[in-house]
## 1
Amino acid sequence: MLNSPALFDRAILWAAARDAVWKLDPRSLMRNPVIFVTEVGAALTTFLWLRAPDAFSGQIAAWLWFTVLFATFAEAVAEGRGKAQAASLRQARSDVQAKLLLHPDTQDGLYARVNAQTLEAGNVVLVETGDVIPLDGEIIQGVASINEAAITGESAPVIREAGGDRSAVTGGTTVLSDTIRVRITAAAGSTFIDRMIALVEGAERQKTPNELALSVLLSGMTLIFLIAVVTLWGLAGYSGTAVSVVVLVALLVTLIPTTIGGLLSAIGIAGMDRLIRFNVIATSGRAVEAAGDVDTLLLDKTGTITFGNRMATEFLPLIGVSASDLASASLLASMGDETPEGRSIVALAKADFGLREPTLIGAVLVPFAAQTRLSGLDIDGRQVRKGAVDSVLRFAGVTAPPEFRQAVDRVARTGGTPLAVADGTRLLGVIHLKDVIKPAIRERFAALRAMGIRTVMVTGDNPVTAAAIASEAGVDDFIAEATPEDKLAYIRREQVGGRLIAMCGDGTNDAPALAQADVGVAMQTGTQAAREAGNMVDLDSSPTKLIEIVEIGKQLLMTRGSLTTFSIANDVAKYFAILPALFVVTYPQMQVLNVMGLGSPQSAILSAVIFNALIIVALIPLALRGVPYRLVGAAALLRRNLLVYGLGGLVLPFIGIKVIDLVVTTLHLA
Amino acid sequence: MSINGWLQIAVTLALVLAVVLPLGRFMAALFTGQRTFLHPILSPVEHGFYRAAGIDPAREQGWAAYAMAMLVFSGAGFASLYAILRLQGVLPFNPAELPGVAPDLAFNTAVSFLTNTNWQAYSGEITMSPFAQMAGLAVHNFLSAATGIALAMAVTRAFARSGEMGLGNFWVDLTRCTLYVLLPLSIVLALAFVALGVPQTLTGSLDATTLEGARQVIPLGPLASQEAIKQLGTNGGGYFNANSAHPFENPSALSNMLAIWAMLAISAALPITFGRMVGSERQGWALLSAMAIVMLGGVALVYWAETSGNPLLTALGVDPALGNMEGKEVRFGQAMSALFVAVTTGLSCGAVDVMHDSLTPLGGLVPLLLIQLGEVLPGGVGSGLYGMVVFCVLAVFVAGLMVGRTPEFLGKKIEAREIRLAVLAVLILPLVILGFTSVAAMLPAALASLNNQGPHGLSELLYAYSSAAGNNGSAFAGLNANTPWFNTTLGIAMMLGRFAYVLPVLAMAGSLAAKTRVAESSGTFPTTSLLFVGLLVGVILILGGLQFFPALALGPIVEHVLMHASATF
């Protein structure tokens, strides 16, 4: 995993506090209209206070500045975490000398040492043991073990070789053994590491579509309340109330959605950051949002749904053979089979029948081979064999009795693989091998279904096998004997039906489907083509990651929505704090609206402003961590969040403002 | 409040509810081009119009073309109505030989009837000839209502269609609405009103000798027909100044009930039409429920405030048992008056059978707030529905994120463009209402029109601009609005309230229609549940109402507080 700092690292907080002040520059704050308006209000009240200093407007001005500062601080904290990660990535990119092959078409191996930054796409370089790969590229010759810890944080070496789906190498990683020739595919400045640095730093951060829409709404609300407050000038004038500008500014700032306005960009940055901590690099924030919207997950069977190896699950003896005899023969026959399947037979025989491995003195092992497709043991004059059904039948030299055929069919029908076992010319029975579904995956899919997400299993198996595994795993659909074209067609069909698709893939032939999918997660171990086509790269190359990515996307959107609701709901209490305070001088009877029983008009206004500023700080942890996501349906989620953030947002400020007012009154601040 | 009173309210609303489903389904069939039981008779007429006007009914219009057609039509309507009013003196059917209407009043009135507002800065019986009433005003009672419904259908199609540019054809929607919905219902309703004693005659007036032997001129006219479309089309412009409080316009408790029913019928049925057209009748019921909840709240508050009476009068020895009866008709009673007040302002109708100026402060707060909430409860014919859709879009956007998906309403993703346009639309009301009120509150020329000072005077100003911008048209009264300042600014407010609101909404519809409809799943934000209804109500109150809170505090709220503190002004 990437070197990721704790949520509130002391160093990051100090740096963020410094950055927060720099961010007060109105030119950069213009991007955030809500906070910009707050800053203008702060400047205005400061100006008025300087002209006619009094304790009240001085405190209002100070708290308005704090409101702006808390908002910029939130953004700076979120960015600071990315900066720390970028710094560690930069070390991997430090100046590297490359061995540029002078005659890449020949095998003479002549090279010139050049600075990696001068290489161009298409150059071929030689990388030998201990060298750092200069830039992103593709192995065109050789095989090597490579340490990719610089980008994945995983120190176990990985194998990369020319041809096939594991040919891509990343600049900044180190070759541990062997020599390879690499064709450079990305020029300096546009490599994978460069993109990662830019992404985690937030340098290229653009507002994502949903973030943009939300800022439009927040700006609109700011404008509406600006109208309400400016026109209040005339209405109050009619009523014979002289309202001071400072108080109007205070009312405006408490009404406009400063809470969500101040935290909006921090939420977005934190969302990307959460993804990075899951070792997934998204090439755009847009992809993260899209992940929350995904309706259909295309999951590879192997590695995601099943362990990837077929395992023995059952012995099916023929009539006249005891199960333990069959198990014992199977155990003997599998002694020469070091494949995972063979080992699983040994394990099953030991577990179910308490058998022990025999002593192999005097025995002759017949090891499993791809050509013979069987393994066995010659011991005490017996010739025990297990293997593919036709191979074993050929070995035994018998035609299969109907009973044996039935057993084989039964296994095949349920999607399993039958293996035959024979002792000499005598058929003993069948071993049932099957893909073993990962534990708890079924529950996971059920939860996804409750969230409205369909899961589709993609497999190269035949339809019968695929159907059996699909029903056991509880996926909604499957694509059997899947070719890359099948995947692409399936994705297109779903998209026409108005669904968003996520998939992961690693091979070059996955590239079109990855590009077509709304969320395409390429494996870090995959080819360059796949990594270019997807809009995310999973550094762990784990196919189950897709599910977490979806959850992170949802969490990002939920956090925004919850804090927006909270922010808007807060307004009710603020009105009840400020409005009676505004008019109570002209209409003493307005005191009845002072439901919180706040000390004085001035303490009421000050308390509302202080609450408005402090709530931003109080919510920074939530903005960075995200609102917890639960695997329940939309209706249940809505009910819960509406209760917590809607109703909570309505009630909490009444309490908060009252408490602050008590403190303000006790300290005689106003 | 009494059980009897609530029963009257319940019976009236039950009668509305009874018609909602058949009428809603009928309109859905009509506007999706299916044959209805009226087609055998009306279809030849309809197609005759198309042939005469050279309209190809099958041609679809994108949002811009639809909007342009609506604007051209409204522009022409304005010009012709303005001309009729100005030239009334030389036009026929003018038995009282009334002169042409002054330019500022003619502008105000033309805009008013064009925008379905029917704000009347004049007394109908002494300003308008029967010709101007029938050929000018009544025509627009039909056309402005039909325009509103047509616009609502265009917005509905944005959700019913997937990946298309067209929103329908304005001319077809307009023709069908007038011909199949408004005309037949008006005819039936007019006959019912006649049966209940509403006059219908071309005689201008009646000379009568009163019991005291004095001679009296009693104005008459084609009242029943005017009354029918006035209520059905949520127009509200009365033939007489006293509007539905006048015994000729509204003679009995029964005609009052029928008037309320007629106001609500189409606006309450349109959500069902919407639901059916977008393929989810439940959605229609959800919208209607949200509308009903807020409106019923309003009814209850008015009813309670009015029956509670005025403590100042009670102190003077007035029997509080009847509540505050000032400005109310005894033949309607407290309950049905309260219902009328809330319905006429929850709708953008604006007919009145009660003097709103004479309501208790809280009783007066309700119509004011119901207008300011955007005239969506259930709002004017058509305009209420598309206003509600805007609130749905905002509600779905704010809360929809909380389920962790890009917000979508009826399968259409709500993105930056839609939000920008929806915000543009909801900005109009506060801008116009608060802006003009604030300026008027500081302008001596405007303040000279006020009958009352203090908070009540502010309520009168606020009400005038709210009513105009909300295209409601009811008057709080107590304000002499027939001055150049008010005629002009209220005219502008009406125009902005209608057109500056609906243009962004149409643009939003265009953008939504072009989007592919996203498939629904259990991860989709539920928009038909009770929870959504509650959420929608909250959004309407908070996003639509909070900005008016300071103004309301200085008007009716402080007046209420002062009343209980025995202060007068």
Note: The two ends of chain A are 52 Å apart (CA to CA).
## 2
Amino acid sequence: MENSMTKPAISEEQMNNTDMNKARAMVYRLLSSLFAKEIDHQLLHELTSEPAKAFWAQLASEPSFKRDVDAMVSVLESLTSDKALMELAADYCGLFLVGTKHSASPYASLYLQDISKSAKAGDQPLLFGEQHQLMLQFLKQSQLQVQTSFPEPADHLAVILAYVEHLCLSASDEEQLSFIESYLNSWLGKFAAKVTQCDSGDFYCALARLTQSWVNSDLTGLTEER
Amino acid sequence: MNRRHFLQGLVSTSYVVLSGASVLAPLNALAASGPKSKDGWLTTGTHFGAFKIKRKNGVIDQVKPFDLDKYPTDMINGIKGLVYNPSRVRYPMVRLDFLLNRHKSDTTQRGDFRFVRVTWDKALNLLKDSLDEVQTKYGPSGLHAGQTGWRATGQLHSSTSHMQRAIGMHGNFVKKIGDYSTGAGQTIMPYILGSTEVYAQGTSWSLILEESKTIILWSNDPYKNLQVGWNAETHESFAYLAQLKEKVKQGKIRVISIDPVVTKTQKYLGCEQLYVNPQTDVALMLGIAHEMVTQGLHDKTFIDGYSLGFDRFLPYLLGESDGVAKTPEWASQISGVTPEIIRDLAKVMTQGRTQLMMGWCIQRQQHGEQPYWMAAVLATMIGQIGLPGGGISYGHHYSGIGVPSSGAAAPGAFPRNLDEDQQPLFDSNDFKGASSTIPVARWIDAIMQPGKTIDANGSKVTFPDIKMMVFSGNNPWNHHQDRNKMKLAFHKLECVVTIDINWTATCRFSDIVLPACTTLERNDIDVYGSYANRGILAMHKMVEPLFESLSDFEIFTRFAAIMGKEKEYTRDMNELDWLKKLYNDCKKANAGKFAMPDFDTFWKDGYVHFGEGKPWTRHADFREDPEINPLGTPSGLIEIFSRKIAQFGYDDCPGHPTWMEKTERSHGGPGSNKFPVWMQSCHPDKRLHSQMCESQEYRETYTVQGREPVYLSPEDAKSRGIKDGDIVRVFNDRGQLLAGAVISDSFPKGIIRIHEGAWYGPVGKDGSKEGGAEVGALCSYGDPNTLTQDIGTSKLAQACAAYTCQVEFEKFRGKLPQVSSFDGPVETLV
């Protein structure tokens, strides 16, 4: 991430807005990276560094985030062995890397599908379906694409969060609001509930709930600023 | 304002998200142009036939049958659902406890489904380390990499060839002999008619349609089974079946389906059915033979000139050797066919040209060798073997047998074995006194009783002490019998590796799972029509391999690289080099006979046509001159009595065809008081074994409340209070499953059908969400091999005997568990 200190001087109000959006972008980026892959030693090191601790503490100062941030920090602090990291990776795998029906797959299409089409019990839409195509179009419009090192459908939560990160820094509040409402907030609740239901550990359900609370609060903020 | 303060507070922590790049990157103009090949219709093929595919934005959009395919199967509607399936194996994965404890892991956890993702590099090194460990500690007898089967089509990317060549470059291993489909048949028939018969080209349909007066479909359902083929299937057989239907209608050919149930073929042809009690066909055949002899209907000249040992068989038939004459009355009591019908059949078969067409199901039972042998004896007594439209065949329902071959050479394949000058890393051939090859269906017995010696086809087989299994494109947790026994056996394995496209039950019960891409994600070539050799088909890559899946070629090239044998493995050729080589070698073999364009033209056109073949009669040359064209039997003649088999001294496979009671049998047979219902688990109508079961939208065209159908009679349904569409619990002492009731007049009392290939989905014994790994678990979807018996057909073939299976069933009244088969290794089913 670029250092904001290198930016040219701008008015205080503008700077505040820029900083605000940078802060928001950072949170979206963090959430995206936590959903994108398992926590390895390097990421753990970063997430438990002194600046990160201060960041978590600040995040937890918001009452609606506190419980989940505390839960996540508590898990992160307990990851003192390879085995503990692997157990967390197994939680990640069971939730996000296999199947769809009994797991909490992070694909928008599973939660946004046309209800009339999925009247049949236990319907599972195919991967790389309509929502994937839709996100590809958004990305293309923004001159973006999914990294080849992340070979997932474009309706993966990590992609959508990363796209919001991009919007925070490039799009109007209205555009952001519209995208977040339609393509993220519309299914995040169902997703978070599924993670909470399926997670055999404590980390990812807290992360999913934090994401939901964060997006809620961000939407409120964006709406109030209009 | 608060929000401002809060956000500014976040910035002021000076925390920066560093780890890893964003999942997004600037749009790369080159990459954005999409797949390199054009987005129009491209040709490819699978077991389900050849077809064309159109892409949209890099994703498979439409599938339509190949122009030449006039009878496509509707299974191609399931293709898209196979590729973009939620149960795709997306990344290399390792069972958590195996990753932590390797060969000392808690193997009872297999089936609890706790996995972690690893990199390809880590996974392949783990595979190499595991193989090193087994070869060092146990030698080649510790490794079984020989359970192989219906790999996806394609001559270059065959999962079997790649796995066995690569694992073979590491070290030697235990292999199988035979297969699950035709184990008993292919073992006995070389003694009787000189070849496996089951995989031999048969008399052309056109000759049968011209010459046959009567066709006996014996336990044979070609209209169902010809939908799929070993290579890209042409479905040309269906044109002949359509003609046969017309001839049946006109009364020109009489077709009798001898079968306990009304088959799909019978319904299509509108032909007759002769009901026979399950597993009693040999008794019925003996009754017919007895009638032929007592009425002098049999062809003594043919028997004398072309067969051996009728005199040794006759005393048994007439009851002189055992005191039981195999009269129509005797046969009737066992088979449920009236003596009058048996007498009539003897007449019908011997008046005019009669073609016997055997299916494969009746040899997948205890003593499954006998019906095939006795049917050959009947055909010999009829005396028409070698005549067009007469004699006997064992494969007219398989891969287009009976469609004349073009005579062209088919393309070769990527080598399955090591090249002549190549040596494995671990070169030991010391199997420690155990056999290096075991009958295909006895591997679970071997794991459970290492060191035990059994009889098999005239030899002694000593079970190796198997500690590690490697499977690729193969799903034994579908095709093997008795899931609960398999679970116990798997507890004894130290390492299980599976390579597949989707999370089959075999993947779920493995330690290392590697993602292969589907046929539509790689380039390949195939012969069009396994027996027709109608042409060569280009199998174009439609999309890039999904997630981190790789082609079999790429997977094992990388593995070979870890062994320092990459160039040895690939012969220093890449995918395109190999495709060109396979094509050009074929072109050379066909030079002067069949015109083939250069590779680039072929690849652009997608297909080269070899033309039609000439009608042909099986065994005509033998009939013409048995001395110049002898059969492959020891005597060169049809062996009604086999001196060789008699010398083996097997009580369950004596020297001539014999009726023997089964360990369990319906309709008054052993065990039918406790479990009165016979379950048949024949090849599915809407799948290829277990392939395509996971394709949900297509699956839902036949499931009942999301479960595999169990077909049952109105009478059995009524007596158990079951209505069409109810969920039924089917059970016996070996296991239990849930299935959805389909009540049908096609099924008589005491007989149910559940098609094999239904994906195993264990849940707790009482239907609770946990406990799938336990012995006794309930199958939530309806895999019939939860109930079948894991015994050999006899000491001869030691083959799969899934059809000797008695069950009971009841309306399921518990809380219905969710189907757990299709969602990968999800540890906690909610």
Note: Residues 173-198 of chain A form the longest helix (26 residues).
